[in-house]
Amino acid sequence: MAQLFTVHPDNPQPRLLKQAVALLHQGGVLAVPTDSSYALVCHLDDKVAADALRRIRGLDDKQLLSLICRDLSELGSYARVDNAQFRLLKLGMPGPFTFILEASKEVPRRVSHPQRKTIGLRVPEHRVLLELLALHGAPLLATTLILPGETAPLNDPRDIRDRLEKQVAGVIDAGACPLEPTTVIDLTGDVPRMLRRGRGDPARLGL
């Protein structure tokens, strides 16, 4: 059965987050709160965990996953970013935006888009998730927690645990999240292109 970690949203208990991180290192998938909606996350370098994450969401290996990073400096290790792109990233991060960028060699092939060699990256504005990332010490592979056949993300951590108790290793309960996914901006072309309008306001980026 999935473990439920009930943490304070502004001052999460390190002891509980360390237990959740241990599940990640054991190959588990976690359901975690973000600044847009609940998400599924796993260790970046664990293929078995990544495959499990895709099965829960009903995604095939051609659909793009994202990396959740602690800050812009960490993001730069996984994507090629020029000066114009970096200025946009600074405007949108931390926040509810996912940016599509050209993947660096640090990104495993199974994670980047198979034809375009791109990757979605974001830096969330959520205290609990940032603390989890700091304790984990590396980005997490992530996808919005929308189950197959549904259109809205799951938002109640106890409902998530009940529905996914045999599919995830743990659920971090920091209260309800917004019910909008991130706004997705593609920065791989000549001009930024919005692929999905979500919680992030594109006007914040001057778009």
Task: Describe what you observe in this structure.
There is one protein chain. The chain has about 210 residues and is an alpha/beta fold. It has a single domain (about 5-205), classed as DHBP synthase. Helix content is about 25%, strand content about 20%. The chain has six helices and eleven strands. The chain has helices spanning about 15-25, 45-55, 70-75, 85-90, 125-135, 155-165, and strands at about 5, 30, 40-45, 65-70, 80, 95-105, 120, 140-145, 170-175, 185, 195. Strands 1, 2, 3, 4, 5, 6, 7, 8, 9, 10 and 11 form an eleven-stranded mixed beta sheet that branches. A hairpin with a 6-residue loop joins β2 (about 30) and β3 (about 40-45).
Which key features would you list for this structure?
alpha/beta, DHBP synthase, 207 residues, 6 helices, single chain
Chain-wise SSE layout:
Blueprint: E1 3-6, H1 14-25, E2 30-32, E3 39-43, H2 47-57, E4 66-68, H3 72-75, E5 79-80, H4 83-92, E6 97-103, E7 118-122, H5 127-136, E8 140-144, H6 157-164, E9 170-173, E10 183-186, E11 193-196
Helix pairs in contact: 1-5
